[in-house]
Amino acid sequence: MKESINGTVWKDINGNPIHAHGGWILFHGGWYYWYGEDRRERYYVSCYRSRNLRDWEFRRHILTMDSRMEAYRVRTKLQLQNEDGGKVNLERPKVLFNEKTGKFVLWAHFENGRDYTAAAAAVATCDTPDGDFTYHGHFNPYGYMSRDCTLFQDDDGTAYFISAARDNADLHVYRLTDDYMNVERLVHRLWQGEYREAPAVAKIKGRYYMLTSFCTGWEPNQAKYAWADAIEGRWSCLLEIGDETTYHSQPAFLLQKDGRTLYFGDRWGGDGEAYFSSSYVVYPLELTEGRLAIKPVEEIWL
Ligand code: DGJ
User: Fold this and answer.
1) Were both Cys, which of 115, 202, 272, 281 would link to 6 (CB 3.0–4.6 Å)?
2) Whole-number Å distance between alpha carbons of 83 and 85
3) Are the C-beta atoms of 109 and 161 separated by less than 8 Å?
């Protein structure tokens, strides 16, 4: 990456802007794979890779309007275009590697491209981290609405899908099946009526931390976090972190590297054309005497 200033346009090693918003980084086989929303042309999700988190090589538009679709055992709707042949929306894509099946499994937030009424979870898979993903459709877990989402993989391989339900009022935590292809159990309905979105989870020094934002569309707001000794155990109440705009960002995901935790956030441009001026921030996340804090550095801290 040439520029290393938070909130500016970040470029890949060929000098092209990186399109990976609402994203996620998966470390696999010595590479960091950065997945994220790419709303240009017929694309939905793009993937870049890097050895050092600074020099990013574009790999592929892994999900597009033309991706292969394949029904899966869960009852899902296979739809990568709306009724008029226009685009749907796939937001906040996250990818895990499943040791048991050898598959890379992607979960995302599906919308119909016109509004936010579908509120569904979408699943796609691939045999490689950066190949053409096969789309398995979208569904409402146990019938619930499912908007902003994230994944979390615990040390023993148990994975969770976390998403905003009931018009964003509650945050649901679903344990996934062994193959990561479906929800197995709704283990939590957290912070009912608090309207938290943009969840991001990390395990730091044996404890689980979840950052979330409030719901203000594309405008940044005050992030809050909570902690738990087990994902399925009791979560703390919400505690404020950062300033009233979370240093002009909304959580995308948390990444651990060399014993440090990095907060990756989106600095959204806004709706319509403004979306394309969205950029990213990376801030150190520090844990001091049990309190979590974001350090709002100007230069990207990697
Ligand atoms: C906030 C969400 O976090 C984003 O992913 C996106 O859905 C916008 N709302 C849309 O307004």
Assistant:
1) 281
2) 6
3) no
HEC letters along 4-59: CECCCCCECCCCCECCCEEEEEEEECCEEEEEEECCCCCEEEEEEEECCCCCCEEE
CB of 142 shorter than 6 A to ligand 1: no
Cβ 278 under 6 angstroms from ligand 1: no
Q: Is the CB of 111 under 6 A from ligand 1?
A: no
148 lines ligand 1 (CB under 6 A): yes
Render pLDDT for 101-133 as a digit per residue (tens, 0 to 9). 999 999 999 999 999 999 999 999 999 999 999
The residues pairing with 153 across neighbouring beta strands, listed in sequence order, are: 159
For ligand 1, the distance from its centroid to the CA atom of residue 259, given in whole angstroms, is 30
Q: Which mutation among 24, 37, 92, 145 tests ligand 1's pocket best, with the greatest number of atoms within 8 A of CB?
A: 92
3-state secondary structure of 275: helix
What pTM, to 2 d.p., does this model score?
Answer: 0.98
Tokens of 298: 């100007």
